[in-house]
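Weekly modeling sync, notes
Attendees: S.R. (lead), two postdocs, one rotation student

Agenda item 3: backlog of single-chain predictions. S.R. asked that every request posted to the team notebook include the full sequence so nobody has to chase files. The rotation student volunteered to paste the first one in as an example of the format we agreed on. Action items at the bottom.

Example entry:
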Amino acid sequence: MKKFFALCALAALWLAPQTGFAQTAKKANWKEMHDFHEVMSTTFHPAEEGNLAPLREKAGLLVERAQAWKKSAVPAGYKAELTGEILKRLVKQCKTVQKAVKKGKSDAELTASITKAHDIFHEIMEKCRD
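Predicted structure, as returned to the notebook:
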């Protein structure tokens, strides 16, 4: 019985790269996406609750991370052409957010702007995965 389980384990290890497991691992390792999400989550979620201080502090970093993500290679498991187009819109919207912060726009305008960027981020998550 032990030999049977050992054989099953070896078969699973051999088959893993040939199945969706390998693509899942690659998706999980898109560093630039995770770096962007870190800043997005620490700015958007407080803004939802009326706390715009993190957004005002990190608007520039949001743009930097969006640009870095756009420049990175699209890993297996994502539709590269579609992802690239949506990332362009994300960078543009993050720049809009940054400009709104610099101009001292109202809380309502900032919240609407970061919400639009957040929606574009989720568009990538929903439409661009294979």
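Discussion: group reviewed the output briefly. The two ends are 38 Å apart (CA to CA).
Action items: rotation student to repeat for the remaining queue; S.R. to check formatting next week.
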